[in-house]
Amino acid sequence: QVCAQLCRRPCYCPWVPPRCPRGSPLVLDGCGCCKVCARRLGEPCDFLHVCDQSQGLVCDYSSAPAGTGGTCNFEDDEEGCEVNGRLYRDGEVFQPSCKIQCHCLGGGFTCIPLCQEDVRLPSPDCPFPRRVEIPGKCCPEWICEGAQDQPLPRDARAAPGAVSPLLRYPCPPWGTEWSACSATCGLGFASRVSNQNRLCRLETQRRLCSAGACPALPAALPAVS
């Protein structure tokens, strides 16, 4: 009955298929007639505007008023997160780039840097240290400017949790727990105070986080003339 009301035969489709946002493939609409952009997690859907089944999404009408559309959700109600148009399952660890690693959990995600954020101070053997991008390497490295731009040896850079050679005493690790995400939906920041750095000084550290997808805005009501 729904097909008879919404699906017309023969099909009349635009000559040029729609341009879909990144991560949204072209699929056939609910009538199996025209190509449409598959709806992603949290986006509105209905009989014609279908969800991306390759990501395990279905149109969820459970929280929608009768006679209205639904929202794309996982078929098994499992929580996930979306980053740059790609969906990740709850508990999945992924790397959007070689410089950060993220963890999808509870509908949101947190990310930690994979490149060391150490500080190189001027010294007699390297008065002008400079951090530069090295071709073929993901993380930038420190070089001594003016000394044929040679990278510094790894033992001259403090590794995470190691005692800095500038210190003559042990540096017991100390830090607070990560704060809640600064955003209630979408990207935000979490912060903490820690002394795990080259000089064993308390500093505020931040990392990316997401508390989940933002709810879709309600459709505007038609103007009454």
Features:
Complement Module, domain 1; 14 strands; 29% strand; Omega-AgatoxinV; single chain; elongated; 5-stranded antiparallel beta sheet; mainly beta
Write up this protein.
The protein is an all-beta fold and 225 residues long. Among the domains are: 1-76, Omega-AgatoxinV (Irregular); 81-113, Ribbon (Complement Module, domain 1), CATH 2.10.70; 176-210, no CATH class. It is 2% helix and 29% strand. It is built from 1 helix and 14 strands. The strands form 5 sheets. The protein has a 5-stranded antiparallel beta sheet with strand order 8-9-10-14-13, with no helix packed on it. A 3-stranded antiparallel beta sheet has the order 3-5-4, with no helix packed on it. A hairpin with a 2-residue loop joins β9 and β10. The longest helix is centred in the N-terminal third of the chain and has 5 residues, at 2-6. It is elongated. The two termini are 33 Å apart. Residues 154-163 have low confidence and may be disordered. One of its GO terms (biological process) is cell adhesion. Belongs to the CCN family. It comes from Nesospiza acunhae. Residues 1-75 form the IGFBP N-terminal domain.
